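Morning. Coffee machine broken again, so started the prediction first thing and wrote up yesterday's gels while waiting. Chain of 379 residues, entered below exactly as on the submission form.
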Amino acid sequence: MPSHHPRTPLGRRALLTGAGAAVAALVLPAAPALAAEGPAGPFGRYGSPAARLTARTLYVHPGGLGDHTSVQAAVSAADGAGWTLVLAAGTYRETVAVSPARTGMTWIGATGDAKDVVVVYDNAAGTPKPDGSGTYGTTGSATVTLQAADFTAHAVTFSNDFLRTDLPGNPGTQAVAVKAQGDRSAFFHCRFLGHQDTLYADSMSLSAFARQYFAHCYVEGDVDFVFGRATAVFEHCHFRTLVRTDLAGPPYGFVFAPSTARANPYGFLASRCRVTSEAPDGSYKLARPWVPGSDTTAWPSLVVRESVLGAGIDAVAPYANMRDAHPWQRQRFAEYRNTGRGAEVTVPENRPLLTPEQAATATRAAYLGDWAPDGPSRP
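Came back before lunch.
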């Protein structure tokens, strides 16, 4: 996604050591903690290498008590379909890619608390590649890239802890935590941490309408931190906008930036969610449309319904343009029965609202069709 501002912010690392210490519980743990070796062992109820849940279960432990010490090593070993990876508590500093052939893969955080299991790296769009072949670009910056269909994650944190100060003056500050492209991708009780372009909900091609589901998840960032062309449903999720000390004034950023293909009737749906902010009141826009150069016919779609929009959202003008050639008013943006200070209708023409009849078609069932996502099975 395009950069919002050329100047560089202090970012999360400075926040954790300074004025942002009070919000430390919402961001990335500072130290790599190994799993507590309690009576159930580092993998809790999910077995162990000596007592596997199934023949296609692999165990990952950063201290060597599993089958593998890195997530990518386990993914590479899980050749074919239907594998489960149980991740012990710890910080896994690496990039991970799940190829299209590895369908039906499940990742389970062993403790059940996403804060305990963190997969993190710090590439950005402008980060030079080690081989000198250029920079990573937005897609290449992803800490985790998920291309396989039927991927499920439970209680895992996906993070990109790149800071704008890491590349001073470089406009390539997009830094993706997850790029999800496969159809029927589901995330339960997961966290997605970053600044710009945190969660890339995408598909494998313009003609592929990938469906994704996020339940009880936490997502934080600043510029366009939930973006892409997937059909993505968010239920009971928490979106957190970050403070930006590099900017003289608002807007600091945008929560959603959908790039829905014109032929796709469904884009992003946020239902019974909440948006909170570390930033001053009115500093953030709820959304802006992304019409990328790769699809100039895109018709971005977003519905936010029955959600609580905190004071950080600009209630007077909650939407903005990314490019004047594609004004937000011409996109498929709408709200329904939202509450909170950021949802107050002060300028009616700036708040497109669904009628009850229209809202009846903006549901999880309508967006996901014949797919009813379930959480990973528990022993």
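The first helix runs from residue 11 to 17. Going to sketch it on the whiteboard this afternoon.
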